[in-house]
Structure formats: C-alpha cells, structure tokens
Amino acid sequence: MTKPAVLIIGARSDIGKAVAHAFAARGHAMLLAARNSSTLESDKADLELRYNIPVTLLEFDALKTHTHVEFVARLPELPQIVVSVVGLLGTQKDSEHDLEAATLVMRSNYEGPSSILAAFANIFEDRGSGILVGVSSVAGERGRATNYVYGSAKAGFTAFLSGLRQRLASRGVHVVTVLPGFVETHMTSDLALPERLTAHPKEVAQAILGATANKKDVIYVRPVWRILMVIIRSIPERIFKRMKL
Amino acid sequence: MKLSGWGRYPALDAKVRAPRDNVDVQRLVVSEPTLIARGYGRAYGDSAINISCTLDMRKQNRMLGFDSTSGQLVVEAGVSLAEIIATFLPRGWFLKITPGTKFVSIGGAIAADVHGKNHHKHGSFRSCVDWVELMGRDGRLCRCSPWEDPQLFDNTLGGMGLTGPILRAAISLRPVESGWIRQTTIAAPNLAATMRQLEGAQDATYSVAWIDCLGSGSRLGRSLIMLGEHATRLELPEDAAQAPFKTKTRSMLPAPAGVAALVLNKLNVRAFNALYYRAGVRDAGVRLVDWDRYFYPLDCLRDWNMIYGRRGFCQFQCVLPLDHSEDGLSALLDEIVRARAGSFLAVLKKLGKQDSAFSFPMEGYTLALDFPVNERTLNLLNQLDQITLAHKGRFYLAKDSRMTAETLHASDARLGAFKSLRDSRGFTGHFRSAQSDRLAL
After folding, report:
1. B207 in Cβ contact with B198 (< 8 Å)
2. Which of A24, A35, A38, B232 pairs as cysteine with A51 (C-beta 3.0–4.6 A)?
3. pLDDT interval class at B255 (50, 70, 90)
C-alpha cells in the first residue's frame, strides 16, 4: 500500500533526488517540484520502476513567490511531508561585485524557500498535521568572508524555520531544520572538500528520513559539524575577524 | 584526484567529471581532447582511467522502463547489477549473465563484455544486450544493436569504452522461480580430473572450478568444481517456498585492510587453500545456496581489494584454446608453484564458443589468478604472459594492469580490425584510457 505523499521542492538537486529515493523506498507517493519539471521524466520513471509508487512532476519556481499560494491550492493531493532543498551557492566573488547576483543568492536561499514553506504551514496548521523540512546550512551559523552572502540568506532561513517550529509546535505540525555541512553534490563539484567533513547526498537523505520519523528539530548530518559550529560560534568577534576560515 | 582500478594498482592522478545527463556528456565529449567513461571502478587495472578526463557515470543511474512480458529492461549506463537484482528479483527476474561481482555498472559490463559461470551455455554479456546507445565523437547519440550498425555493436561489446561513452542500454532479464541455486560440489584430485569434470558438466547451467594453485606434483590443479542450477519453487523446503525470493541479506563486513598484508603470506595462503579444499571435499554433494553467496561470494567483504595492502594487487586472466588447454594450464600452474607465489583465489572455467570483434572469451579454458604487486610477482606475470602466448591464448583486458603492448599485439589478431574501426570513426585519438595508451590500442 502506498504511504502518504512527500513533496520535494527543488527535486532536481542531488540532495533532492536522494531524498526522493529514501522516501520512495519506504513506499511513499512522491510529488517532485522543480523548474522545467518535464526534464525529470527519467527520474520519475526510475522511482516508479524501482519502488512501485506513483510519482507526479510539478512545475515550480521558488523565485516566483506570487505563484506559491496557487501552487499549493492546485496540488493533486496535499502531502504529509514537504522537504525544501531549494538553494543557490553562487560564488562569493560574483556576489560581492554584482549586486544582482547577490540578490539572486539571497532570494534563492531565503525568500523562495521561506515563502513556499509559509504557504504550506498555514494549510498544515488548519489540517493539524504535517511535517515541514527545510535544508539550510551551517554557513548560516556565522558569517564568514568567503561566503557571507550565501550564509546570511541561510541564517535568515534557519531563523525562519526556528520561528515556524515554535509557532506550530502546539498545532500538530513539526518543522525540521537540516544543517548539512559539506555535501558532495553538483553545487560543490568545483570545490575541494575535506573528506571527513563531507557527506554523500544519500547520508543527508537518510538523516532527513530519520529526523521526520523521530521528530528531530535541528539535525547536522555528520555529528562532527555540531561540535565544529559550537566552536566557530564561540570565537570572539575581535579574534574571528582576523582569522582565515 | 587519485584513481585506480579494483586492484589499486596503478594509481594515477586524473581529472574526473561527473556528468548528470546527456547534455553534460555531450559538452565534455565535444570539448575535451581525450576521455574515457568509468563506472564503479571494478576493472582491476587502468581500463577506466584517463588522466586528462575521466567521466564518472555513476550519476546516470536511472532505470527507464521494463517490459514485464519480454523481460526487457532499459537503463542508463551507471545502473549497477546490484540495483537491478534488488529491484527485479522480488518480481521473479534475474540477470541472464553476471560476472563475479554485482557492483559493476551496465556500461562497464558491456564495455568489458563480461562473462559468468554460464558462458559455456549462454555466452557472454552481449547475449543479453538488445541495444546500446553511445555518444559519438561529434556529440551525437547513436544506437547500435545486432541489426542497427552491427559493426559498432560488435566492437562496443568488449571494446573497453574505446568506442565512446555508453549512455543507455536495453538488456533482457531471465525469469526465475526463486532466489536460490541448487549447488553441486565435486572434488577433483588433479588438473586432468578437473578438466574431465568440467567437460562432463556441459549441461549444467553454471559451472566453475576453484583451483588450489599450491598443489604440486600429482596434486597439481586439484580443485573443487561447483555446478549450479536455479532452484524451482518445488525444490525449496517448505518455509523457503513460501517466500522464494526472500534470502537472507548478507551484512557487509569491512575487510581487514592492511592487516591482511601481514596475514596473507605464503604459509597461510597455502593453509587457506588446503583447508578450503578439504572443507569442499567434506561438503561435496548437493545443497541450496542463495544467489548472493553463489554468484558473489566476495561481495560481502567490502573493500576486499585492501587485503593485499598498500601496493595493491594484479589479476591475471587468460583463455587458452581447447587444443592447447591442458598443456598450457599445466605450464601456467607449474610456473606458479615454482615461483611459490600462491594466489589466494584461482578460478578455472570452460568457456563456450564465441566469435566476436574484440571480446575476451573464446572456446577453451580460462584461468584467473591474483597476486600482490611486487617485483617478484611482476616477473612471474611476465612469465605467465609468455606461456599464454606460446599456447595461443589471449588476455582479459578488464583484469590487466601491467601487460606490455607487444604481448597484447602478439596475442590477438583482431587488434588490426578493432583499430581500423576506431580510426574510421575518429575514436582513436579521442576515446582513450591509460590502458589503451599503454597497450597502443
């Protein structure tokens, strides 16, 4: 029997695909939302064939926030779980020199994902059930010279999720904040990442699966990041500003 | 990034790109001066390494369609055999042809035209491949099959990726009634008896011999012959017949890396071989074995390739034509015994008739061995090359990591035709691997 639907927002990303496999393998129906969603036909065929569950592709643009309420209203079925993996790393250099590029990074990591989760939050609150999962980033825990535009948007998103969780805690709706450290994806394929700190998208997906089952609030995919971020957050600003991190 | 094959020798610094779709592959094929595709890195040597551009195809691992009447499955090249079994065995389908590990990609299985324990009956991997889609030099997709561009098809099966990156393929699965194999074990005291047994087992679906390659003198070539048949539902005990596809999933044990470099020495390879043989003699007879244990006995040791330690190991696999098999095998085993370089695993198999453009198998006996990499065994391997050449044998490129171009060219008269096909389609300068450079392919 097929279990309640899970909606992945940003389903084209490597993490999005891994999350889809993790939930589909447990027998959940899948709703995959992305731009140019018809290019995900192969992924739909793959998930249906492997796990014998129905997959629906949905056209969605995180930046077109004025369409979000209607997107939710027109869904063929209201999902039980919504996972947002929307994000854009950009490059810090571009973000510094091109304010349009910076705005795009900010909107993609904060405004877009917050907007769509907000739309679901209201409906889930009325229904009195559901789980919202937002993939944010450890980069949002403290601004650093090398990626503060991205980081600041993620910081905003993390704060948004935290507030949403508090608001909905007594309403039967759970909110999960995911703070993956480095993940080996297309987004990071040009960066040299330290192996022990870098998770595979499948690890992130399993962590999200676990967090939804156990109603975890904030998860770091690899535990070492929790410790690292405690340290990084506790460095006094006058020292931090001279550090190269 | 450092890349090596399953034998961890040689390890080369290579630029790796992981295309997500055909558009990415196209961009790379058109812009990179030379490249080779790579799957799960299970070829033993440098077949799937190109230092200037290696395409990691593992992200292209979608299953695209299955026809439950004919059993035809269409997949992207990065899908592994393990994924196919996990998906389709519960529905009553199994691979028609499988090599000794399930952790290979469809692209890799096609490129090496792998064979299994049923080669004498069902041929190599090509016999289950309905069509292959490759990317040509110009970035265009081309489909080949026994009916559509058969020349490209024939050279792609066994062509080691040198006819262009494989993107998709259609393969046929076999209907099975259970996930169990009825295994018959027979002990043979020497090489002649081993060959007689394999000869007599032509009707068995699966047959293979494990050789104690440290047995010398009258015990030279003593072996355990393992025959197998897919068990029907009626042949299962009652509880298993209730859920015929449910076999215990084996947990993956980490192989004791490095430790084994100390452990795997002459003495205990000898002891292991002797014990294994004796256990086989004791357990001779018929029993039910699950598919995973039967086809993939080593897959449960994750990273078993670490057991030879840091320097890695080499595989040697040749096939000798029937009329040279007995002499040639004796000479090979003699040389190994004399070098006192016992191989941990030695496998002998009788292959059936096969006549294809560049695939490894031909009718005769194939022997596979592995040795840790060191001066002594590298010398021994050169000796084994010469014995193989003297007995008109040829070599399996998926296992090779150290052969010379002269040896290969002396062993295989088909090289000229393979090269002219590559020349005529503009592949030669473009689709290259460290192995094809070394072997002047």
Report:
1. yes
2. A24
3. low
User: Has residue B385 got a pLDDT over 90?
Assistant: yes
Residues in chain A: 245
Tell me if A46 and B62 make a contact (CB, 8 A cut-off). Answer: yes
Regarding beta strands B180-188 and B285-290, do their DSSP bridges make them parallel or antiparallel, or are they unpaired? antiparallel
Is A150 among the residues known to form the active site?
Answer: yes
Report pLDDT for B342.
Answer: 66
**Domain-wise residue ranges, chain B:** 59-177, 180-405
Instruction: Go through the domains of chain A in sequence order and give each one's CATH number.
Output: 3-240 (3.40.50.720)
Global ipTM: 0.89
- Structural class in CATH, domain B59-177: alpha beta
**In this predicted model, what pLDDT tens digit does every residue of B137-169 receive, in sequence order?**
999 999 999 999 999 999 999 999 999 999 999
Q: Given phi > 0 = left and psi -120 to 50 = alpha, else beta, which region is B309?
A: left
Under a CB-based contact definition with an 8 Å cutoff, are residues B173 and B65 in contact? no
| Arithmetic mean of pLDDT over chain B | 92
- Contacting residues of B for A39, CB less than 8 Å apart: 21
- H helix and E strand count, chain A: 10, 9
Instruction: Verify whether the Cβ–Cβ distance B18 to A42 is below 8 Å.
Output: no
The CATH class, in words, for B180-405 is alpha beta
Q: Name the pairing type of β-strands B313-321 and B394-395.
A: antiparallel
pLDDT higher for A207 or B249? Answer: A207
Cα B253 from Cα B127, distance rounded (Å): 33
The pLDDT assigned to B307 comes to 73
Mutation for testing the A interface, residue in B22, B61, B63 having most A CBs under 10 Å: B63
**Nearest C-alpha neighbor of B115 from the set B423, B368, B400, B303:** B368
The predicted pLDDT at position A181 comes to 85
Q: Which of A49, A53, A183 to mutate to test the interface with B (most CBs of B within 10 A)?
A: A49
Residue B217 has a CB neighbour count (10 Å cut-off) of 7
Within an 8 Å CB–CB cutoff, is residue B76 touching chain A?
Answer: yes
Query: What residues form DSSP beta bridges with A61?
Result: none
Closest CA to B435 of B44, B6, B163: B44
Interface test with A, best of B17, B54, B61, B62 (most A CBs within 10 A): B62
Query: What phi, psi does B36 have (nearest 5°)?
Result: -145, 150
Angle subtended by helix axes B375-390 and B322-339, to nearest 10: 160
Confidence category of residue A189, pLDDT binned at 50, 70, 90: confident
Least reliable range by pLDDT among A196-200, B48-52, B395-399, B429-433: A196-200
- Residue among B21, B62, B83 whose CB faces A45 most closely: B62
Coil, helix or strand for B219? helix
pLDDT over 60 at B264, yes or no = no
Chain B positions in Cβ-Cβ contact with residue A45 (cut-off 8 Å) = 62-65
Which residues of chain A are within 8 Å of residue B83 when distances are taken between CB atoms? 50
Residue type, A146: T
Which regions of chain A does DSSP assign to beta strands (E)? 3-9, 28-34, 55-59, 81-84, 130-135, 173-178, 182-183, 198-199, 218-219
3-state SS assignment for residue B200:
helix
User: Chain A: nearest CA to B19, how far in angstroms?
Assistant: 9
Confidence of residue A116 (pLDDT cuts 50, 70, 90): very high
The string of DSSP letters for A114-140 reads HHHHHHHHHHHHHHT-EEEEEE--GGG
* Torsion on CA atoms A184, A187, A191, A195, rounded to nearest 10: -10
Q: What is the pLDDT of residue A44?
A: 98
Candidates B386, B399, B397; CA nearest to B436 is: B397
pLDDT at B266 over 80: no
